[in-house]
Amino acid sequence: MQNIQSYVNQHKERFLNELIELLKIPSISADSAYKNDVLKTADEIKISLEKAGCNHVEICKTDGYPIVYGEKIIDKNLPTILVYGHYDVQPPDPLNLWNSPPFEPVIKSTELHPEGAIFARGACDDKGQMYMHVKALEFMTSTNQLPCNVKFMIEGEEEVGSVNLSKFVKTNQEKLKNDVILISDTGMISKDTPSITTGLRGLSYVEVEVTGPNRDLHSGLYGGAVANPINILSKMIASLHDENNHITIPGFYDKVEELSKAEREQMAKAPFSLENYKKALDIEAVYGEEGYTTNERNSIRPTLDVNGIWGGYTGEGAKTVIASKAYAKISMRLVPHQDWEEITQLFKKHFESIAPKGARVKVTPHHGGQGYVTPIDSIGYKAASKAYQDSFGKEPIPQRSGGSIPIVALFEQELKSKTILMGFGLDSDAIHSPNEHFGVWNYLKGIETIPLFYKYFTELSK
Questions:
Q1: Whole-angstrom distance, CA of residue 66 vs CA of residue 44
Q2: C-alpha distance across the termini of the chain, in Å
Q3: CB neighbour list of residue 366: distance below 8 Å, 6 or more residues apart
Q4: Averaged over 57-83, what is the pLDDT?
Q5: CA distance 25 to 40
Q6: 396 CB contacts (<8 Å, ≥6 apart)?
Q7: Which pLDDT tens digit goes with each residue over 151-179?
Q8: pLDDT surpassing 80 at residue 199
């Protein structure tokens, strides 16, 4: 790709300003109060794709938020790359922990990003990484260097489980037909050590409700005589792990893939400092399943975590009450071969079975998805590896991620395509947390690297 670095440098300020304007829109799909903002963001994505060079762009309605579809077809005999991303973002709570307002983007220097990082909700997940692809297309079309066809599918419900994407994919297979799917919604090891995500964990997300008495009770008059739902829920949750942090749900590990010693040794070659890891999180010790390293615990092993728990009185001051109900939201990250719907049912059966008399339990499944592993001998992976080698000057490391992108397995099932995960974020970017950010260097490096993938994928497909 000729002049790509000079093009990025020439348009750097505009690329940053355009992303900042997109980040100002609070496209929070989980909160209906922001419906108009989510829809406005879809409109802005459509305009951006048109300006970048797509010759057809449309906003496709679903039963929820729309999917923005765009394409640039130059020759039907050439390969077609389908780019997936999402324009919705996580809620910014808790707001008091942000150093600057989540939807008032600012660029600040940090120790890892002396050239600056964009602080805003969605900066890395996924507006910043999705927008890299829009700008990469702009470069290729404006310089007449687009080597193949490209399609875009940008959705607005990823942060709430991609509720309507499955139906859209199943009913638009011809429209979405492609040779490879390209996604930037993951990260890399470091700015000095590029990596390509080759595995994702699956997900099962549930909400539980424990009900005791038919109303809130005075803790003095009834305490010790009536089951307290908050106490019971706490004990039930605590019982879901044993003393070795092994999940106690019967059948939970039946289909868990055990990696070979050789594979685990290969994983261990990735640069990792346990001391730096603890320092970055301000913790004295790591925690997890006995017998596995930190990097194995957060990538190749399944987990169960409480994401939220509430009940009773949580306001200022005191209120001596035994609550009628207690609630928790629980997510389970799954590894390949664990079916998320099967795991959800195993959880439901077990959780209901351990409820003591005097309490009623309700388990409500929310959403989930399967894990995914992409082979490193595919044309797509080889093209991505060559692109990183050109851009970073070194070969990327294949790495399994602890995160989940449930729709990746769906894509392979319905579209029969492999997915390549070219992420440019860092673990320190605080996605889903206060002070989310994305390095300016990472953003521009992504724009520089992505066109190289197009080049090598086209060449290797001949």
A1: 12
A2: 18
A3: 161, 205, 206, 207, 329
A4: 98
A5: 8
A6: 188, 194, 195, 196, 384, 385, 388, 389
A7: 999 999 999 989 899 999 999 999 999 99
A8: yes
Angstrom distances, CA of residue 100 to CA of 22, 286, 333: 17, 30, 31
Question: pLDDT (tens digit, 9 = 90+) per residue, 202-236?
Answer: 999 999 999 999 999 999 999 999 999 999 999 99
User: Which of 391, 400, 404 lies closest to 442 in space, CA to CA?
Assistant: 391
Rounded percentage of the chain residues whose pLDDT exceeds 90: 90
d(CA 415, CA 81): 12
Rounded CA separation 50/52 (Å): 5
Task: Give me the mean pLDDT over the 107-134 stretch.
Answer: 98
Q: At what angle do helices 12-23 and 440-460 cross, to 10 degrees?
A: 110
Q: Could you tell me how many residues make up the chain?
A: 462
- What does the pLDDT average to over 313-333? 96
Tokens of 353: 């079975």
Query: CA angle 353-356-361, nearest 5°?
Result: 60
Nearest to 297 by CA among 339, 247, 350: 247
Cα–Cα nearest to 204, from 166, 268, 161: 161
Rounded-to-integer distance, Cα 78 and Cα 243, Å: 56
> What pLDDT is stored for residue 107 in this prediction?
98
Q: Residue 266 pLDDT more than 80?
A: no
Strand order in the sheet with 106-108: 106-108, 117-119, 437-439
Structure tokens at 424: 């440019």
The rounded mean pLDDT for the chain is 96
Its pTM stands at 0.83
**Sign of CA pseudo-dihedral 230, 232, 233, 239:** positive
Non-local (6+) Cβ contacts of 160 within 8 A are: 29, 30, 88, 367
- Within 160-215, where are the H helices? 165-171
